[in-house]
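Recall the central idea of this unit: under ordinary conditions, the amino acid sequence of a chain determines the structure it adopts. In this exercise we apply that idea directly, starting from the sequence alone.
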Amino acid sequence: MKNYFEEIKKKLKNNIQIDNIEIIDNSHKHIKHKFFTPGKFHLHIIIKSKHLSSLSKVNAQRLIMNILKEDLKTKIHALEISIE
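Accordingly, the structure predicted from this sequence is:
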C-alpha cells in the first residue's frame, strides 16, 4: 500500500510542480458503506503547489483527476483533494 501511495506521488510530481504532497488513506472510515469495495481506496490528497494555486479550483482538480484517471478506474474509489 505504501508503495502505491509513492506511485501516486511520483505520477503527480512528474506532471505538476509540487512543493509538498500528503496522501491520507481514509478507506477504514468507509468499510460499512453500501458501495465499499475492498482493494479500492478512499484517499485525501493534500497538495501544496504554486502552480495549482494559480489555477481555478475546478481546473486544478481536473488536472489531478486526469493524471490519476487510470487509478480512479482501478484502485481509487473516492478522492478528496485539498490544494494549498
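The helical segments are 2-15, 50-54, 57-67, 69-74.
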